[in-house]
Amino acid sequence: MSETTETSEAVLEGSYVPYTNSSPFQYASYNFENTALELARAQWPNYGDQHYLKGCKWSPDGTCLLTVVRGAGTHVMELPSDLYSGESIRTSRPIVPLQPAVSVPESGLIYDYCWYPGMNSSNAATCCWLSSGHSGPVHLWDAFSGDLRCTYRGYNNQDEIEPAISCVFSADGQSIFCGYKKNVKIFQTARPGRDFTEYPVQHQVSCIVASQAQPGVVAVGTWKNTIDLVSQSDGSFRHLCKLSGHKGGITTMAFSLDGFRLYSGARKDKEIICWDLRVPGRPMFCVPREVNTNQKIAIEISLDGKWLVSGGTDGKVQVWDVSEQTYPTVHMQMSLHSDCCNGVSLHPFRPILATASGQHHTLDPLHHTRNTSQYENALCMWWIGAQQEDPDLLTAIIKAASNS
After folding, report:
1. Which residue ranges contain the repeat WD (predicted)?
2. How do beta strands 96-97 and 37-43 pair?
């Protein structure tokens, strides 16, 4: 599909704005050889109701970062202005404290969220994100004001609103795919309300992703550890194949840039499986990671298709080079958090990695307390590009060594 025909309509107070899937920027050149340098951090307090983070996602234009905090709503953090340019960062650069530019105090649990794929800060109408939670319909939020633009309401057989467990935009932004207990509902982005079409499934849809390279191809993950690959055509779904190999329910998936590979991870499952969709009968390869809880631990594929990145319940971030190797080994492992690292997101145009940490900590059955030393609940930005030593700091170190 050409860029001129790849358009959709973003909803903004009844007006429609065309979206073209093009960018003036080049993909980031990540350097996973040096130790990650921390750039910025936001920390949430250790309240009794546990305000831990639930992932993080860079906006498509790279200007801001979206995160969800359990019990504290959704927050948008802007990229620090000094990080928009420059080929390298000095190791002496101070860590910038992050403050939310926009906060939405949604009540209850938020199950899933995603950016509008054509989000561009120079066009306010495209700056929005979706969120789904247990309290009601799918919401479309304004990224500038935090106002609610509209809702997409899925109804069950009893004509009751049911919450979407997962949600995602189509590659062109025209449609919204929402996963429910017994079906996938497809809404038209420009038509909020209760108009939708359905695709029936056998199990609850825990995770859903859309292919950017092959418009209309959608992977539907379930709590029954299976993945259905389907194709949307003429307003309906056509089943392509079923993938089965995980031990637990599917929690995270990502398509490769060319659309030929699908990476998936599951709860209480210490493997990421790579599926070759040209020969989908068996996994192409598996790589290990530490996941010993039911929590969603995100994976990310760099836009150039070279790097696979994953968090872990041990607080480590692992990186694999999947560009050429059939059975890749860990290229780099970074201990970035003292608590579970549940979110990883690579900046689209700068060598910056965002991570989110935190998890549910159970009560001590004898003392009814939690080990608060394990809490972190942090959103961080890390530089994974070229670094340079501060000449003044290096001179001071040499002088101090010579005096001793």
Report:
1. 298-330
2. parallel
Q: What integer pLDDT is reported at residue 26 of this predicted model?
A: 62
Give residue 20's pLDDT: 40
What span, in angstroms and rounded, lies between the C-alpha atoms of 330 and 319? 6
- State how far the Cα of 68 lies from the Cα of 76, in Å rounded to an integer: 9
- pLDDT by residue (tens digit) across 220-262? 999 999 999 999 876 677 889 999 999 999 999 999 988 999 9
Distance between CA 100 and CA 77 in Å, rounded? 5
Looking at this protein, which amino acid is placed at residue 44? W
CA distance 301 to 299: 7
Kindly indicate the confidence band of residue 31, based on its pLDDT and cuts at 50, 70 and 90: confident
Sole residue written with tokens 């059975």: 327
Domains in the chain, CATH or no CATH each: 23-403 (2.130.10.10)
- Report CA-CA distances (Å) from 348 to 49, 169, 197, 310, 343: 34, 18, 33, 16, 16
Give residue 115's Cα distance to chain centre: 9
Q: The tokens 């070279």 sit on which residue? A: 306
The reply to whether the predicted model has a pTM over 0.90 is no
Residue 19 pLDDT > 80: no
d(CA 131, CA 139): 5
Alpha-carbon dihedral sign for residues 40, 70, 118, 27 = positive
As a whole-number percent, the residues of the chain with pLDDT over 90 amount to 64
pLDDT of residue 12: 40
The tokens of 367 are what?
Answer: 């003392």
Q: How many CB atoms lie within 10 A of CB 14?
A: 7
What's residue 392's pLDDT?
62
CA distance 43 to 71: 14
